[in-house]
Amino acid sequence: AMPDAAAPPSSTSLTTRMVAAASACAVLVAGGAGLALYNSGVPHAVAKPAGLLLAPMVSVIEPCLLAPAAGSPGATSDLTAACTGPGGSAAQLVESTLTRLQPAGAAAGRYALGYTLPVPLLQLFRATATGWEIDDAIVGRLVRTVRDNPRPLILYLFSTHFAADAPIEEALAKDPANLASTRDGPLPTGRYYDSKIYNWTFASTATDITARRVQAIQAVLAGLCQLEPKDRAKIRGVTLLGELHHLFPDFERGMGFASPYRVSDYGQPSIAAFRHFLRQEFKTVAHLNRFVDSDYASFDAVDPPSRDIRTEPLKRYAEHIDSFAQGSLPVSGWAFVGTAPAWVHIYRDGEFVGKTAVGLGRQDVLKARPEFGDANTGWRLDLDFKRLPPGLHRIDAFLEQKPGELTAIGTRQIAVMDKRQQTPVLVPQKPLPASVPATATLQAYVDQPVAESSYYFNPLVPLWHSFRAQQVAAYLRYFDGVVGASCLADTPRYTHQIVPFTNPSWDANKFAIQTSLQKMGTVRLGVSLYGEASYGSSFANWYGSTVHGGYGVTEFHPLKAMNATALQQVLDRHAAQGAEFLSFFVEPQWHDQLVARGHNIFSFDPENARFGSDRLYAAMQQLLSPAKLGGAAAIATTAATAATTTPATLQGKVSAPASPTP
């Protein structure tokens, strides 16, 4: 059995100490000087991992680590004994699951096979007569899993807005101080498909939700730090919290550009921090007023923009906000052109402004038109309108399937408005290029902009979004400091972020995670890649434009079937461009049988036909046991051949759905 860890502090003393500490280093300060606070106290240099580790996320939490009661789904007697008996852990369940992917004694594949161990932070608490306390038995099973399984692992310290079905969540949600706020107040509990959403705030670390996350992390770290160095060395990386981004109502359907515009965080700590951010940026209110063309008497008079000029009265124009008020609008849609590469050319008032490839993921289009057989029909170009003259403008989209041959696929007239809302008049137009008739197989549509829509630029809005993005990064840095102060200071630490800007139908500013995807000191990049983002060129193109020295793929699913050759090519590409680990969901298996639980629809699993997951599982099995394909050299040769004839599905850009945390 694992030695007893030091007793955690009581809930009262913990909260008191956390609030006191947060007064010095809460996420209430933005700008370079403020953000530096979250990188202090981490003196160790973190070594770069060597090679790509395949680290499937084995779902061992419910059937093992939480000690399911007899008779509950998945609770067989011998599994229960392995998990909860003296010295019990999930080590045997992990190995039983991984052995199905790579049988014992099989020839090793090109990449090492480990696992991702999810640690649901809020599930580590139990209610007692004196309050919420860490359940040392669960922590012990987690730690012994690391000790007793010989494989390398990624430690996933999980606590996001997706519910973990932990009893403490309901208690924490009763305190509005723990919840993110829109302009209308704290966000209530929501849903994302079958998952409950708790809209936790990260605008301040002086909250009970933050204190409990820290308490749980420190309890796990205390146990891990008592392991032998050889066992701690198995931990190849730590991912922090999971998806962290700003929130909005109707999480399942509210990711796009539709009105009304409601985003977090408008709580009082966030408003105070925004004013501090503006002081740091502009020094004097006169400078701010010149920049935003307003008349604030002081920084304390500034409120974040929160009202729509089209439907609500404003005291100042600077109060206006919507999905476009930062000064850009998407020109986007879809086109089905078969296998030929295609580009969409965009003209504004008869002038060419740019072109974009057809190839972004549109799962909604594939669902509506399954005969297309391909989700990568989307396209998008963001049009900056900040410096356009007020008036009526015409947007035209043309599809180019052959060089120099353009086919008109849509025209939209829009109004760029000034703050006085003068009646717009048509601006001068230039002749459009010649258009050839559409082919019989061409099908296309322009989703954005909506015809006769209006657009207002408010220079305060980009400042608000920049501040919100810094809030995300600062909260992650805070938890990087928590882990960095432990015996895992030298272990690489990663974010676990979605990439919403790759989805042509989403408003990335709602999420405000741009800063957290950039270089952040000792926090390495971790991203969840779904659909074409996992196998196409768009992520590689974006990644190549950054200064990152490596990354982790925290969730991976192509959303379509692949054979071993195609999958090997994808893995090789990630390894070549710096991926240090790649994680995908797998279901636990015991005695060659699936363990009964609420299975994740995105799990690579022989019994899950959705999104080609069963065929992806078989392909991964082949890669991990290359003898089944005639040896590692056979796969390498086949993959090299495939690389010279890259299919159209590996070209173009990407769109990923919401990262589907179970």
Descriptive notes:
With 662 residues, this protein is α/β, with parallel strands linked by helices. Helices cover 29% and strands 20% of the residues. The strands form 8 sheets. A 9-stranded parallel beta sheet has the order 3-1-24-23-22-21-12-7-4. Helix 1 (11-25) crosses helix 8 (208-224), helix 17 (564-576) crosses helix 18 (613-624) and helix 17 packs across helix 19. The longest helix is centred in the C-terminal third of the chain and has 25 residues, at 460-484. The radius of gyration is 26 Å and the shape is globular.
Give me some keywords for this one:
disordered C terminus; 9-stranded parallel sheet; about 650 residues; 5-stranded mixed sheet; alpha/beta
Give the distance, in angstroms, between the N- and C-terminal Cα atoms. Answer: 30 Å
Number of DSSP strands? 27
Query: What's the pLDDT, averaged over the residues?
Result: 86
Largest sheet composition: 9 strands, parallel
Structural class: alpha/beta
Unreliable sequence segments: 1-47, 629-662
- SS summary, helix count: 19
User: In order across it, which strands form the biggest sheet?
Assistant: 3-1-24-23-22-21-12-7-4
Helix content: 25-40%
Strand content: 15-25%
Task: Assign an overall shape.
Answer: globular
Q: Radius of gyration, Cα only, in angstroms?
A: 26 Å
